[in-house]
Design brief:
This protein is mostly helical. Helix content is 58%, strand content 3%. The strands form two sheets. A two-stranded antiparallel sheet has the order 1-4. The two termini are 26 Å apart.
Length: 424
């Protein structure tokens, strides 16, 4: 990750491929000579990027980071962002409707966003390599800016900072192998290891190659953190997560449900509330209020509930009970400090999941076949969200156990084997 500031670092192959791909559509040129550590000029200032640059830079160590040697003359610009934001606000997208009351503020501030050349370059590269990236970023920019404005933060600088956070939060994904960015498929542990570093990559990119304030780069690194230590990449807790980082965490959840066809705001509201203490209630309330105002139709797809859903919820209950008992048994045995840390973490996470189960009233929930529309919808959301949290919990334990011996891993494996075995 120190490649962003180290002399003699090699270009990231995935970012380089994205930049070359972008050059097929947009004007990307060298803003200075690209020189390797031996002083050999590889690409001249003013020369347009082409596929041959990819070959020249492979396994070459550069005098300066590649991102500071190129510039995008078109692609993502302040003008295109203004047009895209306006289109999003005027669309039927539930999130666009939710931010519409702050349209004036957002459209006024987007024209003044300080779009650093490195950020513009990498946004353009991301847009070219994965077309869905820019709409996601524009929606994030709108939501984050509206959230900040809604809390009475009228200072333009605060709103612009939040908008930049939403726009740039996933910039680190350009440096990740594309196969790990297909969110329609569940990632295995190897894929998860690759994905969890993207917030940190984005943070370091902005910290070392731009003049943006540290507040922004820090928040970018925190947009997948959760206040109960269940996030990534640093598993921060409570006040360890900055205020802007907490805002971006809520924004990320809202964006994650935006692609759902059925009641996306209601789904986001539920996800933000299902496990108490995961998110900052001040920022989560923006999405929860928007969901309440939207009054989305919950009946579509209600026939998905039934006996299978009851069985799935019962399985979650059983798995939580069995995993907790296993953790308690292991806690009583003599273990190394590292093993003890993993067990204690597991107990803490299982306790929070049980609290969520109890808070949802699932212990006294009606059978799904007998539930009304709203109850049926909530049961489906409960099953989906708790299942996702259990998959996340399993990955956390596996990641935490990475430094253990094979024997220690074997002893701990019953902790997570029963939780969606084979699905990590």
């Amino acid at each position: 990750m120190n490649a962003f500031r180290a002399v003699g670092s090699q270009p990231n192959p995935h970012a380089l491929a994205a930049l070359v791909k972008a050059s097929e559509t947009y004007a990307i040129v060298a803003s200075r000579d690209i020189v390797d550590v031996r002083g050999i000029k590889l690409w001249a200032q003013g020369q347009a990027v082409s596929a041959s640059l990819h070959q020249r830079l492979l396994e070459r160590r550069l005098e300066r980071p590649l991102e500071t040697c190129l510039e995008a003359e078109d692609g993502v610009t302040a003008a295109t962002l203004t047009d895209d934001l306006k289109a999003f606000i005027e669309s039927d997208d539930p999130l666009g409707v939710a931010v519409r009351p702050w349209a004036g503020t957002l459209l006024a501030q987007v024209r003044h966003l300080p779009l650093h050349s490195v950020a513009q370059l990498m946004l353009t590269a991301a847009m070219a390599s994965r077309p869905g990236t820019l709409p996601h970023a524009v929606a994030g920019m709108a939501i984050a800016g509206a959230m900040m404005a809604s809390r009475g933060y009228d200072a333009p600088a605060e709103v612009r900072l939040a908008m930049l956070g939403g726009l740039l939060h996933d910039l680190g994904e350009v440096y990740i192998h594309p196969q790990y960015l297909d969110y329609t498929e569940s990632l295995n542990l190897v894929g998860h290891k690759h994905l969890v570093v993207h917030p940190r990559v984005g943070q370091l990119l902005l910290m070392h190659l731009t003049d943006y304030p540290r507040t922004l780069s820090t928040a970018i690194g925190e947009h997948h953190e959760r206040m109960d230590r269940s996030g990534y990449p640093a598993r921060l807790h409570g006040d360890e997560v900055s205020d802007l980082g907490r805002l971006l965490g809520v924004m990320e959840v809202a964006l994650g449900t935006a692609r759902l066809e059925r009641a996306p705001l209601a789904c986001a509201s539920f996800a933000l509330r299902v496990v108490p203490g995961e998110f900052d209630a001040r920022w989560a309330s923006f999405i929860c209020d928007a969901a309440e105002k939207a009054q989305e139709d919950l009946s579509c797809g209600a026939d998905a509930a039934g006996v299978d859903l009851d069985v799935q919820l019962a399985d979650i209950d059983r798995q939580l009970v069995e995993a907790r008992q296993l953790a308690l048994d292991m806690q009583e045995q003599r273990r190394t400090a590292k093993v003890t840390d993993v067990v204690n973490h597991a107990l803490e996470r299982l306790q929070r999941l049980r609290q969520a189960w109890n808070a949802l009233g699932l212990w006294a929930a009606p059978a799904s076949a007998e539930a009304g529309t709203s109850e049926s919808f909530e049961l489906q959301l409960a099953q989906a969200e708790l299942s996702q949290r259990m998959r996340n919990f399993q990955r956390e334990c596996l990641l935490l156990s990475d430094g253990l011996s094979e024997a220690e891993k074997f002893r701990l494996s019953p902790l997570w084997r029963g939780l969606f075995d084979g699905q990590v």
